[in-house]
Structures are given as C-alpha cells and as structure tokens.
C-alpha cells in the first residue's frame, strides 16, 4: 500500500526505520490516503488524530497494530 501511494518501484525496499516523509515522500495528503486505505482494508476507524504522531513506517505499523488489537 505504501509503495503504491508513494509511487515507488517494486524493487524499493520499505523498512520500519524509514521516514514516511523524507524517505518515502509521503506528504500529509498521501498520509491521509494511507489512513483511508488502512481503514478500508482492516474495516476499522482510526480517527482524525491517528496520523499526527506518525514519523516512520514502524510508527505506522505500531499504531495500526495497537488500534486493531485494542
């Protein structure tokens, strides 16, 4: 999903340490797309403040996992 939204080639490796903005070029509008797609795929509502503290891919993974689990 991140690869598609960031328009990255299939050969680009995405790691938890990568910065969403600096490394993947995901700006605030693209981040909204990420949140909307995660909500659709997982059938959850993440809320308006969900993306506020996201900096890295790992942050995104942790926040989604915590929200889905709890």
What does this structure look like?
Helices cover 46% and strands 0% of the residues. The chain is built from three helices and no strands. The chain has helices at 2-5, 28-42, 57-69.
Describe this protein with a few key phrases.
46% helix, 70 residues, 3 helices
Question: Which helices and strands appear, and what pairs or packs with what?
Answer:
Blueprint: H1 2-5, H2 28-42, H3 57-69
Q: Report the total helices.
A: 3
Q: Main β-sheet, in a few words?
A: none
Beta-strand percentage range: under 5%
Report mean pLDDT, rounded to a whole number.
92
Shape: globular
Count of extended strands: 0
Between the first and last Cα atoms, what is the distance in angstroms? 23 Å
Contiguous low-pLDDT stretches (5 residues minimum) are: none
What structural class do the secondary elements suggest?
mainly alpha
Percentage of residues in helical conformation:
40-55%
H/E element string? Answer: HHH
Using the CA coordinates, give the radius of gyration: 12 Å
């Amino acid at each position: 999903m991140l690869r598609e939204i960031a328009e990255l080639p299939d050969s680009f490796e995405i790691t938890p340490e990568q910065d969403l903005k600096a490394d993947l070029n995901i700006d605030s509008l693209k981040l909204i797309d990420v949140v909307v797609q995660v909500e659709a795929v997982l059938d959850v509502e993440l809320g308006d403040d969900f993306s506020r503290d996201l900096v890295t891919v790992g942050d995104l993974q942790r926040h989604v996992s915590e929200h889905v689990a709890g």
